[in-house]
Protein backbone atom coordinates (compact mmCIF):
# COMPACT_ATOMS: atom_id res chain seq x y z
CA UNK A 1 0.00 0.00 0.00
CA UNK A 2 1.32 3.42 -0.95
CA UNK A 3 1.69 5.75 1.97
CA UNK A 4 1.40 9.51 2.00
CA UNK A 5 4.91 10.74 2.73
CA UNK A 6 5.56 14.42 3.22
CA UNK A 7 7.28 16.26 0.41
CA UNK A 8 10.38 18.42 0.49
CA UNK A 9 8.25 21.29 1.73
CA UNK A 10 8.13 19.50 5.09
CA UNK A 11 10.47 17.37 7.15
CA UNK A 12 11.09 13.90 5.79
CA UNK A 13 12.24 11.31 8.34
CA UNK A 14 14.98 8.91 7.35
CA UNK A 15 13.80 5.38 6.70
CA UNK A 16 15.68 2.11 7.08
CA UNK A 17 16.70 0.30 3.89
CA UNK A 18 13.76 -1.46 2.25
CA UNK A 19 13.87 -5.04 0.97
CA UNK A 20 15.21 -5.62 -2.54
CA UNK A 21 11.78 -6.05 -4.09
CA UNK A 22 9.11 -3.69 -5.36
CA UNK A 23 6.96 -3.24 -2.28
CA UNK A 24 5.57 0.09 -3.47
CA UNK A 25 5.81 1.25 0.12
CA UNK A 26 9.02 3.30 0.19
CA UNK A 27 9.32 7.05 0.73
CA UNK A 28 7.65 9.26 -1.88
CA UNK A 29 10.33 11.92 -1.87
CA UNK A 30 9.04 15.06 -3.54
CA UNK A 31 11.75 17.68 -3.99
CA UNK A 32 10.20 20.99 -5.02
CA UNK A 33 13.39 21.92 -6.89
CA UNK A 34 12.47 19.34 -9.54
CA UNK A 35 9.67 21.51 -10.85
CA UNK A 36 9.82 24.96 -12.49
CA UNK A 37 7.44 27.72 -11.49
CA UNK A 38 4.14 27.74 -13.35
CA UNK A 39 1.09 29.98 -13.47
CA UNK A 40 -1.11 27.69 -11.41
CA UNK A 41 -4.48 29.33 -12.28
CA UNK A 42 -3.68 29.04 -16.00
CA UNK A 43 -2.71 25.38 -15.76
CA UNK A 44 -5.91 24.71 -13.85
CA UNK A 45 -7.76 26.16 -16.84
CA UNK A 46 -5.81 23.97 -19.27
CA UNK A 47 -3.31 26.56 -20.48
CA UNK A 48 0.46 25.99 -20.40
CA UNK A 49 3.51 28.10 -21.18
CA UNK A 50 6.85 26.44 -21.95
CA UNK A 51 10.29 27.57 -23.14
CA UNK A 52 9.37 31.25 -23.16
CA UNK A 53 6.93 30.71 -26.04
CA UNK A 54 3.32 31.95 -26.21
CA UNK A 55 0.81 30.02 -24.08
CA UNK A 56 -1.09 27.07 -25.52
CA UNK A 57 -4.57 25.86 -24.55
CA UNK A 58 -4.47 22.10 -23.93
CA UNK A 59 -7.96 21.92 -22.47
CA UNK A 60 -8.94 20.26 -19.21
CA UNK A 61 -9.80 16.85 -20.63
CA UNK A 62 -8.62 14.66 -23.47
CA UNK A 63 -5.25 16.38 -24.03
CA UNK A 64 -3.74 15.92 -27.47
CA UNK A 65 -0.27 14.68 -26.47
CA UNK A 66 0.97 14.90 -30.06
CA UNK A 67 0.66 18.68 -30.01
CA UNK A 68 3.67 20.71 -31.09
CA UNK A 69 2.09 24.07 -31.97
CA UNK A 70 5.35 26.01 -32.04
CA UNK A 71 7.33 23.25 -33.79
CA UNK A 72 9.86 23.61 -31.02
CA UNK A 73 11.84 20.77 -29.49
CA UNK A 74 12.02 22.36 -26.05
CA UNK A 75 8.25 22.92 -25.96
CA UNK A 76 7.48 19.30 -26.89
CA UNK A 77 9.96 17.99 -24.31
CA UNK A 78 8.38 20.10 -21.56
CA UNK A 79 4.90 18.92 -22.44
CA UNK A 80 5.84 15.27 -21.92
CA UNK A 81 8.14 15.87 -18.94
CA UNK A 82 5.00 16.64 -16.83
CA UNK A 83 6.97 18.85 -14.48
CA UNK A 84 4.08 21.29 -14.73
CA UNK A 85 1.85 18.54 -13.31
CA UNK A 86 4.33 17.96 -10.48
CA UNK A 87 4.13 21.61 -9.51
CA UNK A 88 0.38 21.21 -9.00
CA UNK A 89 1.11 18.45 -6.47
CA UNK A 90 3.50 20.77 -4.66
CA UNK A 91 0.81 23.46 -4.69
CA UNK A 92 -1.66 20.97 -3.18
CA UNK A 93 0.76 20.14 -0.40
CA UNK A 94 1.35 23.82 0.24
CA UNK A 95 -2.28 24.90 0.25
CA UNK A 96 -4.24 21.75 1.11
CA UNK A 97 -6.68 22.54 -1.72
CA UNK A 98 -7.83 19.22 -3.17
CA UNK A 99 -8.60 20.66 -6.61
CA UNK A 100 -4.88 20.95 -7.36
CA UNK A 101 -4.30 17.28 -6.62
CA UNK A 102 -7.37 16.27 -8.62
CA UNK A 103 -6.15 18.23 -11.65
CA UNK A 104 -2.64 16.75 -11.33
CA UNK A 105 -4.10 13.23 -11.11
CA UNK A 106 -6.28 13.79 -14.18
CA UNK A 107 -3.30 15.04 -16.22
CA UNK A 108 -1.06 12.13 -15.21
CA UNK A 109 -3.74 9.49 -15.76
CA UNK A 110 -4.56 10.91 -19.17
CA UNK A 111 -0.87 10.87 -20.12
CA UNK A 112 -0.41 7.24 -19.00
CA UNK A 113 -3.55 6.10 -20.83
CA UNK A 114 -2.80 7.92 -24.09
CA UNK A 115 0.94 7.23 -24.27
CA UNK A 116 1.56 3.48 -23.97
CA UNK A 117 5.17 2.66 -24.63
CA UNK A 118 5.50 1.47 -28.21
CA UNK A 119 1.93 2.49 -28.98
CA UNK A 120 0.91 3.57 -32.48
CA UNK A 121 0.84 7.32 -33.05
CA UNK A 122 2.50 8.16 -29.74
CA UNK A 123 4.70 11.25 -29.86
CA UNK A 124 8.43 10.43 -30.06
CA UNK A 125 8.92 12.76 -27.09
CA UNK A 126 6.74 10.59 -24.83
CA UNK A 127 9.45 7.98 -24.23
CA UNK A 128 12.60 9.89 -25.15
CA UNK A 129 15.24 9.42 -22.45
CA UNK A 130 15.18 12.97 -21.08
CA UNK A 131 11.40 13.37 -20.71
CA UNK A 132 11.35 9.97 -18.96
CA UNK A 133 13.97 11.22 -16.50
CA UNK A 134 12.16 14.50 -15.84
CA UNK A 135 8.69 12.94 -15.64
CA UNK A 136 9.51 10.21 -13.12
CA UNK A 137 10.00 12.58 -10.13
CA UNK A 138 6.61 14.14 -10.89
CA UNK A 139 4.96 10.71 -10.85
CA UNK A 140 6.75 9.82 -7.61
CA UNK A 141 5.53 13.05 -6.10
CA UNK A 142 1.95 12.26 -7.15
CA UNK A 143 2.24 8.74 -5.73
CA UNK A 144 2.44 10.18 -2.22
CA UNK A 145 -1.28 10.91 -2.53
CA UNK A 146 -2.63 8.55 -5.21
CA UNK A 147 -2.73 4.78 -4.70
CA UNK A 148 -3.92 3.75 -8.16
CA UNK A 149 -2.55 0.68 -9.93
CA UNK A 150 -2.02 2.62 -13.18
CA UNK A 151 0.39 4.95 -11.39
CA UNK A 152 2.38 2.17 -9.74
CA UNK A 153 2.65 0.25 -12.99
CA UNK A 154 3.83 3.37 -14.81
CA UNK A 155 6.51 3.95 -12.18
CA UNK A 156 7.72 0.38 -12.65
CA UNK A 157 7.96 0.97 -16.42
CA UNK A 158 9.79 4.25 -15.93
CA UNK A 159 12.23 2.66 -13.49
CA UNK A 160 13.03 -0.16 -15.89
CA UNK A 161 13.83 2.32 -18.66
CA UNK A 162 16.00 4.42 -16.35
CA UNK A 163 17.97 1.36 -15.22
CA UNK A 164 18.62 0.19 -18.77
CA UNK A 165 22.37 0.74 -19.44
CA UNK A 166 21.72 1.03 -23.17
CA UNK A 167 19.64 4.18 -22.58
CA UNK A 168 21.90 5.77 -19.97
CA UNK A 169 23.74 9.07 -20.80
CA UNK A 170 26.84 8.79 -18.63
CA UNK A 171 28.72 12.03 -18.04
CA UNK A 172 25.85 14.09 -19.46
CA UNK A 173 23.33 16.34 -17.75
CA UNK A 174 20.61 14.01 -19.02
CA UNK A 175 22.38 11.16 -17.23
CA UNK A 176 22.28 13.12 -13.97
CA UNK A 177 18.53 13.60 -14.39
CA UNK A 178 18.21 9.86 -15.09
CA UNK A 179 20.13 9.08 -11.89
CA UNK A 180 17.93 11.35 -9.77
CA UNK A 181 14.80 9.80 -11.25
CA UNK A 182 16.02 6.21 -10.76
CA UNK A 183 16.96 6.98 -7.17
CA UNK A 184 13.47 8.28 -6.41
CA UNK A 185 11.70 5.47 -8.27
CA UNK A 186 13.85 2.84 -6.57
CA UNK A 187 13.20 4.32 -3.15
CA UNK A 188 9.46 4.61 -3.74
CA UNK A 189 9.04 1.09 -5.12
CA UNK A 190 11.29 -0.51 -2.53
CA UNK A 191 13.78 -1.55 -5.21
CA UNK A 192 17.09 -1.13 -3.41
CA UNK A 193 19.13 -2.31 -6.39
CA UNK A 194 17.80 0.63 -8.43
CA UNK A 195 18.56 3.06 -5.64
CA UNK A 196 22.11 1.78 -5.23
CA UNK A 197 22.69 1.73 -8.99
CA UNK A 198 21.62 5.37 -9.19
CA UNK A 199 24.08 6.35 -6.46
CA UNK A 200 26.98 4.52 -8.12
CA UNK A 201 26.25 5.95 -11.54
CA UNK A 202 25.77 9.47 -10.20
CA UNK A 203 29.20 9.56 -8.57
CA UNK A 204 31.03 7.97 -11.50
CA UNK A 205 29.26 10.23 -13.98
CA UNK A 206 30.14 13.40 -12.06
CA UNK A 207 33.82 12.49 -12.19
CA UNK A 208 33.57 12.19 -15.97
CA UNK A 209 31.47 15.30 -16.49
CA UNK A 210 33.32 17.70 -14.16
CA UNK A 211 37.09 17.89 -13.99
CA UNK A 212 39.11 18.67 -10.85
CA UNK A 213 39.10 22.39 -11.71
CA UNK A 214 35.32 22.43 -12.06
CA UNK A 215 35.08 22.60 -15.85
CA UNK A 216 32.04 20.83 -17.26
CA UNK A 217 32.98 18.83 -20.33
CA UNK A 218 29.74 19.82 -22.06
CA UNK A 219 31.57 23.03 -23.07
CA UNK A 220 28.93 25.59 -22.13
CA UNK A 221 29.01 27.50 -18.80
CA UNK A 222 25.21 27.59 -18.84
CA UNK A 223 25.21 23.83 -18.35
CA UNK A 224 27.59 24.28 -15.43
CA UNK A 225 24.80 26.30 -13.81
CA UNK A 226 22.23 23.62 -14.65
CA UNK A 227 24.32 20.70 -13.40
CA UNK A 228 25.18 22.59 -10.19
CA UNK A 229 21.49 23.14 -9.53
CA UNK A 230 20.58 19.54 -10.36
CA UNK A 231 23.34 18.18 -8.15
CA UNK A 232 21.81 20.21 -5.32
CA UNK A 233 18.49 18.49 -5.99
CA UNK A 234 20.27 15.14 -6.17
CA UNK A 235 22.00 15.63 -2.82
CA UNK A 236 18.72 16.55 -1.14
CA UNK A 237 17.03 13.52 -2.69
CA UNK A 238 19.84 11.21 -1.54
CA UNK A 239 19.52 12.36 2.05
CA UNK A 240 15.73 12.12 2.00
CA UNK A 241 15.95 8.59 0.66
CA UNK A 242 17.93 7.64 3.77
CA UNK A 243 21.36 7.46 2.14
CA UNK A 244 24.55 9.49 2.58
CA UNK A 245 25.81 11.91 -0.04
CA UNK A 246 29.05 10.54 -1.54
CA UNK A 247 31.88 12.97 -0.65
CA UNK A 248 33.17 12.94 -4.22
CA UNK A 249 29.79 14.07 -5.53
CA UNK A 250 29.68 17.03 -3.16
CA UNK A 251 33.28 17.96 -4.06
CA UNK A 252 32.57 18.01 -7.79
CA UNK A 253 29.54 20.22 -7.22
CA UNK A 254 31.63 22.70 -5.23
CA UNK A 255 34.28 22.79 -7.95
CA UNK A 256 31.68 23.88 -10.50
CA UNK A 257 31.25 27.15 -8.61
CA UNK A 258 34.73 28.41 -9.51
CA UNK A 259 34.20 27.67 -13.20
CA UNK A 260 30.81 29.40 -13.32
CA UNK A 261 31.85 32.43 -11.26
CA UNK A 262 34.79 33.19 -13.55
CA UNK A 263 32.46 32.95 -16.57
CA UNK A 264 30.16 35.67 -15.21
CA UNK A 265 30.83 39.15 -16.59
CA UNK A 266 30.95 42.24 -14.32
CA UNK A 267 27.37 43.11 -15.30
CA UNK A 268 26.20 39.78 -13.84
CA UNK A 269 25.52 38.04 -17.16
CA UNK A 270 27.05 34.74 -18.13
CA UNK A 271 29.44 35.02 -21.07
CA UNK A 272 27.62 33.33 -24.00
CA UNK A 273 30.10 30.55 -24.78
CA UNK A 274 28.71 27.42 -26.39
CA UNK A 275 25.00 26.83 -25.82
CA UNK A 276 24.82 29.57 -23.18
CA UNK A 277 22.15 32.27 -23.67
CA UNK A 278 23.50 35.81 -23.48
CA UNK A 279 20.96 37.04 -20.94
CA UNK A 280 21.50 34.43 -18.21
CA UNK A 281 22.36 35.82 -14.75
CA UNK A 282 23.68 33.14 -12.36
CA UNK A 283 23.65 34.11 -8.68
CA UNK A 284 25.10 32.72 -5.48
CA UNK A 285 28.21 31.06 -6.88
CA UNK A 286 31.25 31.13 -4.63
CA UNK A 287 34.40 32.64 -6.13
CA UNK A 288 38.10 32.71 -5.46
CA UNK A 289 40.30 35.79 -4.99
CA UNK A 290 42.19 35.40 -8.26
CA UNK A 291 40.90 37.59 -11.08
CA UNK A 292 42.51 35.52 -13.85
CA UNK A 293 42.12 31.79 -14.22
CA UNK A 294 43.35 29.32 -16.83
CA UNK A 295 41.20 26.19 -16.92
CA UNK A 296 42.94 23.20 -18.50
CA UNK A 297 39.58 22.10 -19.93
CA UNK A 298 39.85 24.92 -22.46
CA UNK A 299 39.06 28.33 -21.00
CA UNK A 300 40.84 31.50 -19.95
CA UNK A 301 38.77 33.99 -17.98
CA UNK A 302 40.12 37.31 -16.75
CA UNK A 303 38.75 40.44 -15.14
CA UNK A 304 40.13 43.60 -13.60
CA UNK A 305 38.13 43.25 -10.37
CA UNK A 306 35.28 41.47 -8.64
CA UNK A 307 32.19 43.42 -7.49
CA UNK A 308 32.80 46.31 -9.89
CA UNK A 309 30.21 46.74 -12.68
CA UNK A 310 32.73 48.85 -14.58
CA UNK A 311 35.45 46.21 -14.55
CA UNK A 312 36.81 44.62 -17.72
CA UNK A 313 36.33 40.93 -18.52
CA UNK A 314 37.53 38.63 -21.29
CA UNK A 315 37.38 34.99 -22.31
CA UNK A 316 39.56 32.83 -24.58
CA UNK A 317 38.76 29.32 -25.83
CA UNK A 318 41.06 26.37 -26.48
CA UNK A 319 41.23 22.70 -25.42
CA UNK A 320 39.53 19.49 -26.60
CA UNK A 321 37.54 19.39 -29.80
CA UNK A 322 33.87 20.31 -29.85
CA UNK A 323 31.39 18.05 -28.06
CA UNK A 324 27.87 18.11 -26.66
CA UNK A 325 26.89 21.77 -26.09
CA UNK A 326 30.13 23.31 -27.33
CA UNK A 327 30.70 25.37 -30.48
CA UNK A 328 33.57 25.47 -32.96
CA UNK A 329 34.93 28.51 -31.11
CA UNK A 330 38.58 27.62 -30.49
CA UNK A 331 40.88 30.67 -30.46
CA UNK A 332 37.74 32.76 -29.98
CA UNK A 333 37.70 35.73 -27.61
CA UNK A 334 35.07 37.90 -25.98
CA UNK A 335 35.73 41.32 -24.45
CA UNK A 336 33.69 43.42 -22.02
CA UNK A 337 35.07 46.75 -20.77
CA UNK A 338 33.95 50.07 -19.31
CA UNK A 339 30.53 48.62 -18.50
CA UNK A 340 29.84 47.46 -22.07
CA UNK A 341 29.95 44.35 -24.21
CA UNK A 342 32.39 44.93 -27.06
CA UNK A 343 33.33 41.65 -28.73
CA UNK A 344 30.55 39.08 -28.55
CA UNK A 345 29.79 35.59 -29.87
CA UNK A 346 26.81 34.79 -32.07
CA UNK A 347 25.49 33.11 -28.92
CA UNK A 348 22.85 30.46 -28.30
CA UNK A 349 19.61 30.78 -30.26
CA UNK A 350 17.76 27.49 -29.72
CA UNK A 351 17.93 23.73 -30.18
CA UNK A 352 15.96 23.93 -33.41
CA UNK A 353 17.68 22.31 -36.39
CA UNK A 354 17.78 25.34 -38.66
CA UNK A 355 20.52 26.77 -40.89
CA UNK A 356 20.91 29.72 -38.51
CA UNK A 357 21.28 27.47 -35.46
CA UNK A 358 23.91 25.45 -37.33
CA UNK A 359 25.74 28.65 -38.24
CA UNK A 360 25.86 29.82 -34.60
CA UNK A 361 28.01 26.79 -33.82
CA UNK A 362 30.41 27.36 -36.73
CA UNK A 363 33.80 29.12 -36.55
CA UNK A 364 32.41 32.04 -38.59
CA UNK A 365 29.99 32.88 -35.75
CA UNK A 366 32.90 33.57 -33.39
CA UNK A 367 35.84 35.97 -33.10
CA UNK A 368 38.42 33.73 -34.76
CA UNK A 369 40.93 33.65 -37.62
CA UNK A 370 39.74 31.72 -40.69
CA UNK A 371 42.32 30.33 -43.14
CA UNK A 372 41.58 31.45 -46.69
CA UNK A 373 40.78 28.69 -49.15
CA UNK A 374 41.17 25.87 -46.61
CA UNK A 375 38.52 23.47 -45.35
CA UNK A 376 37.74 23.52 -41.64
CA UNK A 377 38.17 20.22 -39.79
CA UNK A 378 35.49 19.88 -37.15
CA UNK A 379 36.40 18.74 -33.67
CA UNK A 380 40.06 19.78 -33.80
CA UNK A 381 41.75 20.36 -30.45
CA UNK A 382 43.65 23.58 -29.68
CA UNK A 383 46.71 23.87 -27.43
CA UNK A 384 47.61 26.68 -25.07
CA UNK A 385 51.37 26.87 -25.69
CA UNK A 386 52.31 29.85 -23.55
CA UNK A 387 50.99 32.25 -20.93
CA UNK A 388 52.15 35.14 -18.78
CA UNK A 389 49.88 36.51 -16.06
CA UNK A 390 50.40 39.65 -13.95
CA UNK A 391 47.82 41.87 -12.23
CA UNK A 392 48.05 44.53 -14.97
CA UNK A 393 48.75 42.48 -18.09
CA UNK A 394 48.16 38.94 -19.37
CA UNK A 395 49.45 37.24 -22.52
CA UNK A 396 48.49 33.88 -24.04
CA UNK A 397 49.46 31.92 -27.13
CA UNK A 398 47.31 29.21 -28.72
CA UNK A 399 47.74 27.03 -31.78
CA UNK A 400 46.00 24.30 -33.78
CA UNK A 401 45.76 22.85 -37.28
CA UNK A 402 42.00 23.08 -37.72
CA UNK A 403 42.48 24.19 -41.33
CA UNK A 404 45.29 21.77 -42.13
CA UNK A 405 48.00 24.34 -41.44
CA UNK A 406 49.35 25.75 -38.19
CA UNK A 407 47.01 28.53 -37.02
CA UNK A 408 48.41 30.56 -34.12
CA UNK A 409 46.78 33.29 -32.05
CA UNK A 410 48.50 35.40 -29.39
CA UNK A 411 46.35 37.53 -27.09
CA UNK A 412 47.46 40.37 -24.82
CA UNK A 413 45.06 42.07 -22.43
CA UNK A 414 45.97 45.22 -20.51
CA UNK A 415 44.10 46.09 -17.33
CA UNK A 416 43.74 49.63 -16.03
CA UNK A 417 44.61 51.05 -19.43
CA UNK A 418 42.00 48.94 -21.23
CA UNK A 419 43.31 47.26 -24.37
CA UNK A 420 43.08 43.91 -26.12
CA UNK A 421 45.71 43.06 -28.73
CA UNK A 422 45.44 39.91 -30.88
CA UNK A 423 48.07 38.59 -33.28
CA UNK A 424 46.97 35.93 -35.78
CA UNK A 425 49.49 34.11 -37.98
CA UNK A 426 49.69 31.24 -40.47
CA UNK A 427 52.77 29.84 -42.29
CA UNK A 428 54.15 31.34 -45.47
CA UNK A 429 52.05 30.31 -48.45
CA UNK A 430 48.79 30.59 -46.48
CA UNK A 431 46.61 33.58 -45.58
CA UNK A 432 43.98 34.25 -42.96
CA UNK A 433 41.10 36.63 -42.34
CA UNK A 434 40.11 37.41 -38.77
CA UNK A 435 36.45 37.87 -37.82
CA UNK A 436 35.21 40.35 -35.19
CA UNK A 437 31.59 40.43 -34.02
CA UNK A 438 30.56 43.53 -32.09
CA UNK A 439 27.73 43.98 -29.61
CA UNK A 440 24.42 45.02 -31.25
CA UNK A 441 24.48 48.32 -29.33
CA UNK A 442 27.54 49.42 -31.36
CA UNK A 443 27.22 51.00 -34.81
CA UNK A 444 29.89 52.12 -37.26
CA UNK A 445 30.93 55.75 -36.73
CA UNK A 446 33.84 55.85 -39.16
CA UNK A 447 36.24 53.65 -41.07
CA UNK A 448 39.43 53.96 -43.09
CA UNK A 449 43.20 53.49 -43.03
CA UNK A 450 42.98 50.18 -41.20
CA UNK A 451 40.57 51.48 -38.55
CA UNK A 452 36.90 50.91 -37.79
CA UNK A 453 35.36 53.08 -35.08
CA UNK A 454 32.11 51.96 -33.45
CA UNK A 455 29.84 54.03 -31.27
CA UNK A 456 27.10 53.77 -28.70
CA UNK A 457 25.88 57.31 -28.11
CA UNK A 458 28.95 59.38 -27.19
CA UNK A 459 31.05 56.33 -26.33
CA UNK A 460 33.54 54.97 -28.85
CA UNK A 461 35.68 51.89 -29.38
CA UNK A 462 38.35 51.57 -32.05
CA UNK A 463 39.42 48.46 -33.97
CA UNK A 464 42.84 49.02 -35.51
CA UNK A 465 44.62 46.44 -37.68
CA UNK A 466 48.34 46.44 -38.47
CA UNK A 467 50.45 44.41 -40.85
CA UNK A 468 53.19 42.32 -39.21
CA UNK A 469 56.17 42.67 -39.02
CA UNK A 470 56.04 46.22 -40.43
CA UNK A 471 53.28 47.36 -38.01
CA UNK A 472 51.92 49.64 -40.72
CA UNK A 473 48.17 50.19 -40.99
CA UNK A 474 46.47 47.29 -42.77
CA UNK A 475 43.57 48.59 -44.81
CA UNK A 476 40.82 46.81 -46.70
CA UNK A 477 38.54 45.66 -43.90
CA UNK A 478 35.12 44.36 -44.88
CA UNK A 479 32.45 45.83 -42.62
CA UNK A 480 29.17 44.02 -43.00
CA UNK A 481 25.90 43.45 -41.16
CA UNK A 482 25.76 40.37 -38.98
CA UNK A 483 23.26 38.66 -36.71
CA UNK A 484 23.78 37.53 -33.12
CA UNK A 485 21.43 36.05 -30.52
CA UNK A 486 20.98 38.21 -27.40
CA UNK A 487 18.61 35.60 -25.95
CA UNK A 488 16.68 32.40 -26.57
CA UNK A 489 14.90 32.51 -29.96
CA UNK A 490 15.99 36.14 -30.37
CA UNK A 491 18.23 37.74 -32.97
CA UNK A 492 19.71 41.20 -33.34
CA UNK A 493 21.64 42.94 -36.07
CA UNK A 494 25.29 43.56 -35.29
CA UNK A 495 28.44 44.79 -37.01
CA UNK A 496 30.97 42.21 -38.19
CA UNK A 497 34.45 43.26 -39.28
CA UNK A 498 36.50 40.95 -41.49
CA UNK A 499 40.20 41.66 -41.90
CA UNK A 500 41.88 41.64 -45.31
CA UNK A 501 43.67 38.44 -46.21
CA UNK A 502 47.23 38.34 -44.86
CA UNK A 503 49.73 35.90 -43.39
CA UNK A 504 49.78 37.86 -40.13
CA UNK A 505 47.29 40.38 -38.71
CA UNK A 506 47.66 42.37 -35.48
CA UNK A 507 44.27 43.59 -34.22
CA UNK A 508 43.93 46.21 -31.48
CA UNK A 509 40.67 46.79 -29.62
CA UNK A 510 40.84 50.11 -27.76
CA UNK A 511 37.77 50.97 -25.64
CA UNK A 512 36.77 54.55 -24.88
CA UNK A 513 38.33 56.36 -27.84
CA UNK A 514 37.83 56.94 -31.55
CA UNK A 515 41.42 57.86 -32.34
CA UNK A 516 44.07 56.08 -30.31
CA UNK A 517 47.57 57.30 -31.13
CA UNK A 518 49.79 54.40 -32.21
CA UNK A 519 53.55 54.64 -32.60
CA UNK A 520 56.26 52.10 -33.39
CA UNK A 521 59.78 52.41 -31.98
CA UNK A 522 62.41 52.40 -34.72
CA UNK A 523 64.94 50.93 -32.30
CA UNK A 524 63.02 48.17 -30.54
CA UNK A 525 60.07 47.75 -32.87
CA UNK A 526 57.71 48.04 -29.88
CA UNK A 527 54.19 49.24 -30.49
CA UNK A 528 52.82 51.91 -28.13
CA UNK A 529 49.08 52.58 -27.97
CA UNK A 530 47.90 55.66 -26.11
CA UNK A 531 44.61 54.64 -24.50
CA UNK A 532 42.33 56.83 -22.34
CA UNK A 533 43.87 55.04 -19.33
CA UNK A 534 47.46 55.66 -20.39
CA UNK A 535 50.04 54.27 -22.81
CA UNK A 536 50.46 50.53 -23.36
CA UNK A 537 53.64 49.22 -25.04
CA UNK A 538 54.36 45.72 -26.31
CA UNK A 539 56.37 43.91 -28.99
CA UNK A 540 54.46 42.90 -32.13
CA UNK A 541 54.80 39.28 -30.98
CA UNK A 542 52.82 40.28 -27.85
CA UNK A 543 55.58 39.08 -25.57
CA UNK A 544 55.37 35.30 -25.99
Automatic annotation (TrEMBL):
Task: Give the subcellular location.
Answer: Periplasm
Q: Which domain of life is it from?
A: Bacteria
Query: Residues in domain Heparinase II/III-like C-terminal?
Result: 323-511
Protein name from the UniProt record: Heparin-sulfate lyase N-terminal domain-containing protein
Asked if the keyword Signal belongs to this entry, the reply reads yes
Q: Which Gene3D superfamilies match?
A: 2.70.98.70, Chondroitin AC/alginate lyase
Give the chief site where it resides.
Answer: periplasm
- Cite the Heparin-sulfate lyase N-terminal domain residue spans from the record: 60-240
Q: Does the keyword Acyltransferase feature in the UniProt annotation?
A: no
Alphabetized, the UniProt keywords read:
Lyase, Periplasm, Signal
Q: Which InterPro entries match?
A: Chondroitin_lyas, Hepar_II_III_C, Hepar_II_III_N
Instruction: Please give the Gene Ontology molecular function terms for this protein.
Output: lyase activity
Species classification: Bacteria, Bacillati, Actinomycetota, Actinomycetes, Streptosporangiales
**GO CC field:** periplasmic space
Region annotation Disordered: where it falls in the sequence: 522-544
Amino acid sequence: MLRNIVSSLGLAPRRPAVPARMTGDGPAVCVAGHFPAIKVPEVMRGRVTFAGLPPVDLGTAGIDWRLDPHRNRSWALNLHALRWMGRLVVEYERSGERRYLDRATAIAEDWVRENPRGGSGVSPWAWAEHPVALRTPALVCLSAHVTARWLRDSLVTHGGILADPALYRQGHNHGLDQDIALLLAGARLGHREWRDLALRRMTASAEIAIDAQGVLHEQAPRYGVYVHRRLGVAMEAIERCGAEVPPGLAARRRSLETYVSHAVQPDGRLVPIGDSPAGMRPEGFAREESTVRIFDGGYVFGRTAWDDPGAAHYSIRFGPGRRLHGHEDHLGVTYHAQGRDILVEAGFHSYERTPYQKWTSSPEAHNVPVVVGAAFREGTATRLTGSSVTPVRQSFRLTDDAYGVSRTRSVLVSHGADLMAVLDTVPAGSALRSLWHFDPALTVASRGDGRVVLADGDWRVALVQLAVPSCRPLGGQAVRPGVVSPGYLRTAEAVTVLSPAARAVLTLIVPGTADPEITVSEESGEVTVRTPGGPVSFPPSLGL
